[in-house]
Amino acid sequence: MTTDGFDKFKGSHDYVTSEALRNAVNVAIALKRPLLVRGEPGTGKTLLAHSIAKGIDKKLIVWNIKSTTKAQEGLYVYDTVQRLNDSRFGDKDISDIRQYIKLGKLGEAFVSKEEIVLLIDEIDKADIEFPNDLLNEIDEMSFYIPETGETTVTVHRPIVVITSNAEKELPDAFLRRCIFHYIEFPDPALMEEIIKVHFPDIRDNLLHQALATFYSLRKIDDFRKKPSTSELIDWIRVLIASSTPDEVIPSEIPFAGTLLKKEADHAYFVNNYMKKMRTTKTADGYETLR
Residue 4's pLDDT band (boundaries 50, 70, 90)? Predict the structure, then answer.
């Protein structure tokens, strides 16, 4: 899509995006709706917001969601404890309540004098009421502070990116008000591009051996947690730092603990996968994985 003004986000130098993902970002920006991004861990959901901020030269504000997070906290918090302490032990004038109003990440985004990118990370960690409460605030683009009797109205609607690991279902009303994109796990060709962003001088043979081994591990359905992109990047970094010979990568899979993070997966890897590898030989040695 090349409509003038629509292709605002074209990616950034350190984050490889598909055309579908770039389109989803630009649709969300054009329609001024939150972009909800899902995908398995390690597919770059969180880093997407960083890339958007870099790509369109905007400040990024990150709001990390926890199980106890409430939408109201994102707007502001009234620090009653500090005010009480100041009244009892300090010599400060506590009559000005404004000094005890602390803006949250959403509040900071609302009062910003310039357009910013707001990342709301892992929304599915919060309780079931949080998503709808959150979008009500984003729709209103203003909030009232009863302690001061003031209403704050946003100057620039932030570009909102929301990530979810699908730990729980999100309400339909919430989903209707978002632009949705599922980040598919990169195929080998796209993964090669991603790796070359991080390791521009990587040897071709090392890259191909590492990718073939990595994707062969991801085909194992018995794994509880398949290795992800971030783990592949860490693994290649270790292979380079240790000067591991390229030819041993598919046969020995050194530093497997960098790729496999579950005890059960590591046990399966040792007892099944590696046992099979030791018995699968060709005239030239261990079979190269494809």
Answer: very low
